[in-house]
Amino acid sequence: MPPGEFELIDRYFRPLDRPGGRRRTDVLLGIGDDAAVLRVPPGQDLVAAIDTLVSGRHFLPDTDPRSIGHRALAVNLSDLAAMGATPAWGLLALTLPAVDEAFLREFAAGFAQLAACHQFALVGGDTTAGPLTVSVQVLGFVPQGQALRRDGGSPGDLVFVSGTPGDAAAGLLLERGAEGGVVAPPEQAAAAQTLRQRFLFPTPRVALGEALRDLASACIDVSDGLAGDAGKLAAMSGCGLRLEADSLPLSAELLQVFGRERAVQLALTGGDDYELCFSLPAARLAELSGAAASGDCAVRCIGVLEAEPGTRLVQAGQPLSLETAGYDHFSPRG
Amino acid sequence: MPPGEFELIDRYFRPLDRPGGRRRTDVLLGIGDDAAVLRVPPGQDLVAAIDTLVSGRHFLPDTDPRSIGHRALAVNLSDLAAMGATPAWGLLALTLPAVDEAFLREFAAGFAQLAACHQFALVGGDTTAGPLTVSVQVLGFVPQGQALRRDGGSPGDLVFVSGTPGDAAAGLLLERGAEGGVVAPPEQAAAAQTLRQRFLFPTPRVALGEALRDLASACIDVSDGLAGDAGKLAAMSGCGLRLEADSLPLSAELLQVFGRERAVQLALTGGDDYELCFSLPAARLAELSGAAASGDCAVRCIGVLEAEPGTRLVQAGQPLSLETAGYDHFSPRG
To answer: What is the ipTM of this complex?
Structure first.
């Protein structure tokens, strides 16, 4: 890219190395050299993840760039949350069709606002020309040996989910509107706007993940649909899963716009929630309310791990097939 | 992506967490969870970089996927080398138009071969559907406080480059061939093939970077053209630069296929070298031969840092403008 474009990129991204205007003392060398130099605190393990958003696949081409900046970071912080890790630093690989100052400004603003909430510093990156693709790589800490994993559950452990799954998938349908999505009637405009915001600006459950470190037996972030992701946690723990459809925490907005049946479908299979799904030994149930409170986020028991492999979905005491629940209507996205 | 495609991707990438078939003991949790869990050795700083290759911009669309896998890692290891860091772990964000088993196999093979040379473990990643884009994020170690930087040079320091710059840019022209590049006559086929290999399979100067930790005053990797990158090192060190065109280490193959004048142009401005350019206090010149030997790579003095800002290129004792040397013919790439 011409030097002027580098300067423009630099203007918007360099301030991201000081989240909320404050420099992290563990960043010894930030943006501007061949690589960043960082210091991991003693007694901490390093947790690392990377996730990519591609235009037309993970967001609609006309999406507010502020949402793209927010989501690119949020989906990665959600991976750290699922490990119980505290976010620290990250790198951004941004591929742009053209250097558009308005896009850069809004993208950086969306990224910066979420980064400031978590004292998360951008310490480097690479901007290239090409089809719009955003990869964010994040690094965080967890006390040595305390990382949450997907494979620690046991039969009998209760299965929980945070927040209100399904809202984000509903929000995406509303964002699509007449083009393959859903148009809400005017009297549902406020609920529809709430659902759209849940898709555009998801909240990674970082504080909840930290609070679950000593408590959850296994944890996964819900990005591809709750039923599938909870099933992954169960399978990696060598268990099966019984899911109670009646226990799903459905938001009032989701129920208002989509009705109960569709709301259950969306909650089980919709994707893009970035909630945490975790298992908990039943004996530790009493400790959960404190963790949920410090995580500033409601959690709901939605099922139990069982010895028998596979996922069994139950509604009103009767088996419900995942296909009936709409599983095949939403294909997993790579 | 359909589940079968995930399995295919898994088949080729999961083995990359064991470079050369050996598991690193500092990888506590590798590919397959929400994030990787890693342990940085005591007394070491963490060094982090990310670089992206985009099809049609950083490699030709019909490039051997083995080269793409090699280069995607090599350009990042070169950033670690420039910091004096020892590579350890990395993450891969791969966006693919379609899941093509032959592509995945060859890409992974190219990546794996270079990774094994450096005991570098792939610990996670994300594969998405979209236009071919490869971002690799790398992490390495350097003893606390010993990272090489771009800004440590002083007037009077000698400026060195490793290897034979210009070869890779020449190789790219030969790869392009009749389509905007250069076609070598049959008697130069062997030299042309060597130059093409230098573009397709660059060697990151990791051992040299490690050897320079205690020695170089500043260091940068040469990716955008030697004159420009050496000029960046000088500017970040608050210096200017005098470059001696007659001192450039030009390969016999480059001279054979392109002639001296064009070879000098390519060496100064061509890009894609992934050599190290570093400054050295003159008083420490005697120590350099040992470092170069342990770095398994020739180095050559090509100039000196000066107090006066700017880059002064000299040939046969006369000033030579960078424009004359072809600087404007090769635009920097983003």
So the answer is: 0.93
